[in-house]
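Because discrete structure vocabularies remain unfamiliar, we first show an illustrative case, written as a sequence plus integers encoding its fold.
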Amino acid sequence: MRQLLKEEYIPFGSQYYRAPSPHAGEWERDLDRMAALGFNTVKFWVQWRWNHPTEDEFRFEDIDRLMELALARKLHVMLNTIFDVAPAWIYRLYPDASMVTLDGRRIGPQTQPHRQIGGLGYCFNHDGVISHFFRFLAATVERYKEHPALAIWNVGSEPELTSSMAEMRLYADDAGRMGDMLCYCPNCQAKFRLWLAGKYDSIDRLNECWNRNYRSFDEAELPITRNTFNDLIDWRMFFVHTLGENVRRRFEIAREIDQGRHPIMCHHVFVQGFPVTSTANDPWNIGQYGDLHGFTQMDDAMMIDVLRSCARGKPVISAEMLALPGYTLDLPAIIDANTVKRFIFSGVAGNQKGFIFWQYRPEILGREAPTWGLSGLDGEETPWLKAYAEAGRVLQKNATFLLDAVPQRARIALLYHPENQIFGWAATGSEKNVTDSLLGTHRALYEHNHVIDFMHPREFTPEILLQYRVIYIPFPYLLGQLVCSALAEWVEQGGVLIGEACFAGWNLEHGHHEKVLPGYGLDRIFGARQYTAAPPDPSGGVTMVLTRDLPYLKSGAGIQGSIVKELLTPDGAEVLARFESGEPAITSAGYGRGRAILIGSYIGLAYHRSKLAANGELIASLVEMAAPLDRPHLTSGRDIRIDLMRNGEGEVMLILQNLRHNEAEAMVALPEPVAGPLREQFSGERLLFTAQGGGVQAAVHFAPNEVKVYCGR
């Protein structure tokens, strides 16, 4: 990170300007206050609609003045180019600019709570619109590429298909709203067929995959129902491609003009907020570009691990920290210092190297007002602004360490598979089923102090797979040949695979359900196969009962599944649990030097939604039983998250979070010794360790929800 920024600091500050707010008369006072609080970075929006008001006129006077004000106060600037607010003249120049829903409605131009100046709704596949889109980007980069206040270009703020029009994403959670699916305009229809021709090379290959008998790609019909899978998957992945190509071109233009003067990035929204089916948001699709990568941070630990994973080694930052979201009469709870510390230091533990709060002043325009701000509406100081500034001082005091430090290596990976996300929506009518399965599984492992990565299907290479001891795949109905073949080889070489019901049940390459499940011949890996699949019991439950002790559960413990009850037939596998009716429900089998565990329902989904403690303990137990991992842990107490950062010189930072709303006592154990006592960076409290096994341990008392940060400084 220091090489990219050419200075040694952690970018820390806030978003400030989304024209026309705040008003110009407030700029100097606010930037003075930011500098006095120790902020070193400020983010300004450069908006296509606002700064390009006519086809032949660019108006940058507001950004010019803000850049000079920032420079005078030694504030580094991130310029964020905002493209989804197309100018009014675009829609006059191109009457066919707007996206079109399945039911024929033209979308936009319109406003949103967070796009109060309007302009939303144009189609990414309209060549005329996009030519002006890139013209605005080029003009912006050309104007500011040599400005001494500029530190980072952010050329993509949450790139996604629906341009933040939340109502256009509802069909991903409500099958009855498929009429809102975007975009069915003539440009998208024509380009989709060209994309199919490029993907499949021949019409025979498309026919094999879709199970059709087309004579040419011109005959390929656009899906208008969710009744068949591969055509719908291709239709939605076409927009993932469209968005990815748009973002790729942004980086090419910015690099060509900036000529390496500044790092270039974009930032995405978590898969839970922007689902791939409706928004074409695949973090790996945009994380592959840029010198660093960022995200819109909400209060969810899985988001941090997705960000780190999709960046694959690039520096990552919180480009928009959403700790105070809300609307006019749907106000956020007041946050305290521990909330601020949780956002920042859970990010530090996930290897983030910068933090930009959204935003300094609360909104005053539209339905997002009067929320989201660090200060009061009048710009006055708030307790959470003081807490944020104090956290910033701790970061900068430790900047030398943090810029070099890395978290513990993840030995567990979960699979994020965009086509499986779409399949899950088509099969169930709710895309949340797949995402919630990931959330529940991640949460269970996070609460047991595992470091977790996410993998994408494109990363299933031997080199990447061998980094992990365990791969856990929740809701794994669609995986594909590449993933399945790689998994089989990896398990044989010693990996531990844990999968849920209907594993690889859909054959992506040939467009049909597999006849034997687990599919693609993986029944031999699991030593078990599906006997039959049934719905939940009439009471609505899927109850599994353990038949042996596991690390965190005793024999006889009950586990709840969801959606499906997959009765298993073991073929050499040990039965770990049975359904209440007696049939095998969870099996474990050795294969080569590795092991494969099969779960006959969706337990991560049930854990996320019902918070059933036994489900979380089972997920952690299966990992611990199959592959004990040496990591920070608790020898007494519970619900304390432990993260350990180390630099190349052996210095450490220990980040502890009380995940409970009440006081807690815990004995924190580290697998390796640490040099000398550590000091809590906010209170000055010293943490004294005693030897324990090959490592050390220390007793810690926590207030409710308390976050503690220790290091040797």
Remarks:
- The mean pLDDT is 96.
- The first helix runs from residue 2 to 5.
- The first strand starts at residue 12 and ends at 17.
